[in-house]
């Protein structure tokens, strides 16, 4: 296995549909909400070199892209996905680390944030130095939140006026500290409990 993780080029446009299909299938299997992407949008990110792709001798293995908000004040990593054939190999962490370093290089003054329901992504973010934060510390750009419209939990987000949802907000501020292991290590039990509380509150009928 010879996996390379590189910034996207024109030759990678052909993977756009497969990337979208893999993201959607993964969400369905996990039963989690996720914002849908189109092949056209994925290609647009590739064209602007705001994406990285993992390939194994030409076979699609993983992907992630960057979005910027408020004129580069904030950036987010979206669409992080690993093909089923390459899971449980630590590839997601490698892709995330690659796009994280690339973001610091391309957007050196930006705060890096994300929202996710996935504990694995939370663990990776925590290892990179992100910290859990309320949504009020994230971008207020309505375009970002509009991207949640295709998520199954969008009604919850709307009902809470974009201040809370099943997702957990996480933020890395390059001005606060360097990319070091966090002072307080990731605690999966705490975040599992938080996730359970949110589900009990928001999904009760």
Automatic annotation (TrEMBL):
PROSITE patterns for this protein: GNAT
InterPro entries per record: Acyl_CoA_acyltransferase, GNAT_dom
Superkingdom classification of source: Bacteria
Protein name as catalogued: N-acetylglutamate synthase-like GNAT family acetyltransferase
Domain N-acetyltransferase: 11-151
Organism: Flavobacterium limicola
MF term (GO), any: acyltransferase activity, transferring groups other than amino-acyl groups
UniProt keyword terms in alphabetical order: Transferase
CDD domains: NAT_SF
């Amino acid at each position: 296995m010879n996996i390379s993780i590189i910034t996207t080029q024109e030759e990678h446009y052909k993977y756009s549909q497969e990337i979208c299909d893999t993201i959607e299938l993964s969400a369905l299997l996990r039963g989690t909400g996720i914002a849908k992407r189109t092949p056209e949008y994925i290609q647009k990110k590739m064209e602007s070199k705001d994406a990285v792709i993992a390939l194994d001798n030409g076979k699609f293995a993983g992907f992630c892209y960057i979005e910027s908000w408020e004129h580069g004040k904030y950036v987010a990593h979206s669409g992080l996905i690993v093909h089923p054939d390459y899971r449980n190999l630590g590839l997601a962490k490698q892709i995330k680390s690659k796009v994280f370093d690339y973001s610091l290089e391309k957007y050196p003054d930006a705060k890096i944030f994300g929202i996710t329901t996935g504990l694995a992504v939370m663990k990776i973010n925590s290892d990179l130095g992100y910290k859990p934060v309320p949504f009020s510390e994230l971008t207020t750009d309505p375009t970002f939140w509009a991207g949640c419209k295709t998520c199954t939990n969008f009604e919850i987000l709307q009902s809470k006026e974009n201040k809370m949802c099943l997702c957990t907000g996480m933020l890395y501020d390059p001005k606060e500290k360097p990319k070091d292991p966090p002072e307080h290590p990731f605690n999966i039990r705490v975040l599992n409990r938080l996730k359970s509380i949110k589900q009990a509150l928001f999904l009760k009928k």
